[in-house]
Amino acid sequence: MNSSVIKSSNGEHNLANYESSASEFDWSQVEKQFSWYNTGKVNIAYEAIDRHAESGNKDKIALYYSDAKRDEKYSYQEMKEASDKAGRVLQDIGVSKGDRVFIFMPRSPELYFALLGTLKLGAIAGPLFEAFMEGAVKDRLEDSGAKVLVTTPELVGRVPVDELPELQKLVLVGENIEEDEQKVDFLTRFQQASPSLDIEWVDREDGMILHYTSGSTGKPKGVLHVHNAMIQHYQTAKWVLDLKDEDVYWCTADPGWVTGTSYGIFAPWLAGVTNVIRGGRFSPDDWYQTLERYKVTVWYSAPTAFRMLMGAGDELLKKYDLSSLRHVLSVGEPLNPEVIRWGMDAMNHRIHDTWWMTETGAMLICNYPSMDIKPGSMGKPIPGVEAAIVDDEGKVLPPNSMGNLAIKKGWPSMMKTIWNRPEKFNSYFLGGDWYVSGDSAYMDEEGYFWFQGRIDDVIMTAGERVGPFEIESKLLEHPAVAEAGVIGKPDEVRGEIIKAFISLRDGYEENEELQEEIRSFVKKELAGHAAPREIEFRDSLPKTRSGKIMRRVLKAWELDLPTGDLSTMEK
Ligand code: PRX
């Protein structure tokens, strides 16, 4: 195994000292970096933006934003003023501490202003991925009891306003908006707003951001994070992203997902670096151009994107000058050794895998710069984090045993609760102290962790986490569908693709048109990325006696594997 180790490139922070004593790191050392250390009253948006504007960095570029139509830059001072103005607009329509303000729009500077403005008021921001369709939008706004939604004229049609009694205001970011009882014209009010705002100082455990994510059962759940998470965002920005003052950093994730907020907003701005946001869709040309144009030094992306770049060929890559790059990282799915080798050959960079989840709020297991990489391993827990492989009773297993990847309670960015569902929050823990991730893994003798798969039926497709239940429920709403079971099918580029097994109601005929119709039904109601790429019709689906579809059997069918114990199956 050692022959394939890629030696450390050393970063500014040599964490080797911590390696044998992860639990000795004291997070309160990090707190002392922040202005709130003495008062205990805090606001993450102040620490991320205003603090730098006030401390001699006001003219430093905080944000380079571009897409097909816009090309802009904002200094820390300009970001401070813009987020104050957005905060004013929201305050004027009644937003105050603890309110849920959802933001449903494509990436644009206004999205970031509105999100920071929301936080400055002590309200809770809820970012929604722009591809969500009506059903998905409704579930999230309803569960969170959102009071305000910031969106665009193009997307507002997907918001079933009449079915959302708690939603009071629709803030529309676009031209020529006519205001009424509910609609608010963001841009006009923003232009007129005063660039100063009294920040709401909150407790470190007060709610900050709500990200909806999927498990294998039930509707998507709202993972609530609090201001205190900044401690870990900041520290991992230093240790793992290796950010230094002069860095230009690009995280390719959309803020609809946790990577796009924890590491697309908070970590880089808490560290005071220049942050690049590129709007629009993925294309290899566009991405290489973005790296070249902004002279990006630190780049955080995902395996699917790296695999697509790899597939686009090295000729394309050679057309661009990527010499500014210093540090490359990945998250979201297993990073294949093959991709790491491509990174070394084509870019001359080690790609550093990092492991964490929506629920964990920040990175936990990582390949940081001062550490040797074993391709295929997610790395080791960062200092201050204790990870282990435990059995189903919470007993710690010895090295090289497969089991549940678990983290000892107590890292700063841990979720506070599951919105509306405290019992769901409790179900994450085994033996009181171990947070159980739902991933299976093993740890080798040297303390490196190796991802093996999900224990539940959650699907990771192109880095996005999709719950089979949400798709199955939607499929059942289609008039032709009698039963539906959804699984992730391994795929070389996307990690997994969504496959649905369906049995039809009497009177419907299996054919390609019906397949296509069912697929676009899910696309229209939930989101493009949630629609099954493959649909297979079966006369009936395997079920337990209580009527639950056995996804494990569907998976075995798909992979030509033995179906295992079928004793609970309905005969
Ligand atoms: O299965 C693991 C996978 O992504 C899941 C978490 O998904 P989500 O909450 O959407 O957050 C994604 C980004 C923070 C995990 O339970 N996952 C995440 N990182 C890795 C990974 N699988 C393998 N290797 C990783 N580095």
UniProtKB/TrEMBL annotation:
GO terms for cellular component: cytosol. The keyword Ligase applies. Residues 55-419 form the AMP-dependent synthetase/ligase domain. Its EC number is 6.2.1.1. SUPFAM superfamilies: Acetyl-CoA synthetase-like (SSF56801). It comes from the Bacteria. Keywords: Acetylation, ATP-binding, Ligase, Nucleotide-binding. One of its GO terms (biological process) is acetyl-CoA biosynthetic process. Residues 470-548 form the AMP-binding enzyme C-terminal domain. Belongs to the ATP-dependent AMP-binding enzyme family. This is acetate--CoA ligase. It comes from Alkalicoccus daliensis. The lineage of its organism: Bacteria, Bacillati, Bacillota, Bacilli, Bacillales.
